[in-house]
Amino acid sequence: MNRFAGKLTEHSLPLRHTRTQVLQINVGKLCNLTCVHCHVNAGPKRKEIITRETVDRVVDWLAKTDIPTVDLTGGAPEMIPDFRYLVERVKSLTPSRHVMDRCNLTILLEPGYEGYAEFLAKHRVEIVASMPCYSPDNVNAQRGDGVFDGSIKALQLLNSLGYATDPELPLHLVYNPNGAFLPGPQAELEADYKQELREHFGIEFNSLYTITNLPVSRFASYLKNNNKLADYMQLLMENFNASTIDGLMCRNTINVSWQGEVFDCDFNQMLKMQWRDGDRGLHLWDIDPADVENREILTADHCFGCTAGAGSSCGGSLV
């Protein structure tokens, strides 16, 4: 039973694609961290990464569209062998596309990744960085020992390159709750983050995005293991906010897997809710961008996570 679809019907709210503004590419599950809240189950031992052949097919398809923004996520996107190649190919398109990198910060300090921060700055790549708190204890509990200190050093490095002060080098931080509860008001949290990080570490950033933890993959396992899944789902459903629907990221985003498969969002990708043509799963190069508009979006109960409270998207709260 899809309770979310029932809720949409109850409120007479259709959920369909509009014009595509973002191509989000999940380049794989390889990551240097193993975070509790990760919906991808990413980690250092994962082998799933995008190949150069798939990179070329995705970028060749993108070149035939007017989609303005490419959003790179993972895993740690920087860890794939063809990360620089992918960014350079996208930026070389005519017209050039805006590139976003969803960065865990610590990867920029790992051996073998020296110079990646400078590479991102050179190519004017927007950085959206995970920083679940300005408190060391909370960050390390969610993401691992020592991650807070590494994140601070990486943010200071990015600031030294012009991130957050140069208008062409935006740097945003992402807050995820450290448990089974909804994020607090985004504006208030942003003000607290800016004060604490500036005062104690001299760090500047542009915006804070609050993102609700969705009951998918590793976070779902955490909830089940702690007998919190039913209560958390109830919390999400009770806080459904109809005014979030218009701003949902699935409405203007096409999500692509490391194998080129097409989904409505990264959460649907993890749940294998792939676009299909009859019995056949679709890849990006199978679809005509013009045919995506007004397409009905695939939903399930996890979608309550994006519509609870102030809403949640890759760009933070929605209302």
Task: Provide a quick synopsis of the model.
With 319 residues, this protein is an alpha/beta fold. The chain is built from eleven helices and ten strands. The longest helix is centred in the middle third of the chain and has 16 residues, at 186-201.
Provide the succession of SSEs. Answer: HEHEHEHEHHEHEHHEEHEEH
Give the strand line-up of the largest sheet. 6-5-4-3-2-1-7-8
Number of strands: 10
Shape: globular
Kindly report how far apart the N and C termini lie: 28 Å
- Rg is 19 Å
**CATH 4th-level superfamily:** Aldolase class I
Descriptive terms for the model:
single chain; 319 residues; alpha/beta; TIM Barrel; eight-stranded mixed sheet; two-stranded antiparallel ribbon; 11 helices; 10 strands; globular
Can you describe this structure?
This protein is α/β, with parallel strands linked by helices and 319 residues long. The chain has one domain: Alpha-Beta Barrel (TIM Barrel), CATH 3.20.20.70. Helices cover 32% and strands 13% of the residues. It contains eleven helices and ten strands. The chain has helices at 3-10, 52-63, 83-91, 116-122, 136-143, 147-160, 186-201, 217-225, 229-238, 266-270, 304-307, and strands at 22-26, 69-73, 98-103, 126-130, 171-175, 207-210, 253-256, 262-263, 276-277, 280-281. An eight-stranded mixed β-sheet has the order 6-5-4-3-2-1-7-8. Strands 9-10 form a two-stranded antiparallel sheet. The relative contact order is 0.17.
